[in-house]
Specification:
The protein is built from 10 helices and 13 strands. The chain is an alpha/beta fold and 325 residues long.
Length: 325
């Protein structure tokens, strides 16, 4: 039985990846802080190992062919680059070093598309475009890119594949994480939206892409995993259609986002944690669009409509609400 070691399984993507691995016949060893934190189903082919990202897991990597490193620091309110570098770079290198020592065949690093250059609908960003502002000033994106660069320079014995997903939507978003964007619109009578846009993708498609990369991905390559490039207004319209609702849609002027960003910068100068910053607010104003041509051509991914991802996310949240009552 093929063995895979996975981190970050309590998050949206990790939970979906574990499910796909088990369905595909893998034996999965998963690193978790506390076993109670895993909310998925038990399985005889799933071993939960308690520890943090700096734990010595070398004993669990024996006979493991693949390591899939998903865990990351993604919060947007941390104040220093060091807060992100510790988890997104130092911990990644720690796990990679143990993987190399254990003769792991392949190390898959789940990064972000924002380490690459975005584009417009006419000229989409791709794996060959260099990172652009505002993400060159994003502590999160910078720390991820630093890890990518190290891993790709040290892929001689253990092969390295970088996966760069865009904004993921779907089921098993327990926290929730990126699914919070659904709550921005769902059951609202007024919806305020920025003028920019994002690349959206069903988390199931990202999970499938990761499994395909285990077998057919090329050593030393990056793969953007994405599907639909949408303005926020158009994405929210899709949420409204799936949820059968008709709220009033109101655009947020760019100057107001700029003021909010400046206010966040000021708060951060006083060591006050906030999601507001000039970098984060600028990201809402741009068309942050990417191409999926490489992942379709080389990984043979068949992407689902984003409406399906929205529907799956809403159904999951409804079930969670019912379970809590």
């Amino acid at each position: 039985m093929r063995k895979a070691f996975v981190t970050g399984i309590t998050g949206l993507l990790g939970a979906n990846v574990v499910l796909k691995l088990l369905q595909d016949g893998y034996f999965v060893i998963a690193l978790v802080r506390k076993k109670i934190g895993y909310l998925g189903e038990e399985n005889k082919n799933l071993m939960l190992v308690e520890g943090d990202l700096f734990s010595d897991v070398s004993g669990y990597l024996t006979d493991v062919e693949y390591v899939i490193h998903i865990a990351a620091e993604t919060r947007q309110n941390l104040l220093s680059y060091a807060d992100y570098k510790k988890i997104n770079y130092d911990a990644a290198i720690h796990l990679f070093s143990q993987s190399v020592a254990a003769n792991v065949k392949r190390f898959l690093f789940v990064s972000t598309a924002n380490t690459l250059g975005f584009g417009s609908l006419r000229n989409l960003g791709s794996e060959n475009v260099r990172q652009k502002y505002p993400f060159t000033h994003s502590f999160y994106a910078k720390s991820k890119l630093k890890a990518e660069n190290f891993l790709l320079k040290n892929n001689k014995t253990t092969e390295v594949i970088i996966l760069n997903p865009t904004f993921m939507i779907g089921a098993y978003d327990f926290k929730p994480s990126s699914g919070k964007i659904i709550f921005w619109v769902w059951k609202k009578k007024l919806v305020f939206y920025p003028k920019g846009g994002k690349s959206f993708v069903h988390v199931e498609d990202v999970s499938n892409g990761i499994l395909k990369a285990l077998q057919t991905g090329k050593n030393g390559e990056k793969y953007i995993l994405t599907n639909e490039n949408l303005k926020y207004r158009d994405f929210f319209k899709k949420v409204n259609k799936v949820a059968n609702q008709k709220p009033l849609m109101i655009p947020i002027p760019d100057f107001l986002l700029a003021i909010l960003g400046f206010s966040g910068d000021l708060l951060r100068s006083f060591k006050i944690k906030t999601n507001l910053s000039s970098v984060n607010m600028k990201a809402l104003q741009i068309d942050n669009f990417y191409s999926n041509k490489k992942s379709i051509a080389e990984l043979k991914i068949e992407y689902q409509p984003i409406e399906k991802a929205i529907e799956d996310a809403i159904c999951f949240f409804e079930k969670q609400n019912q379970a809590e009552k």
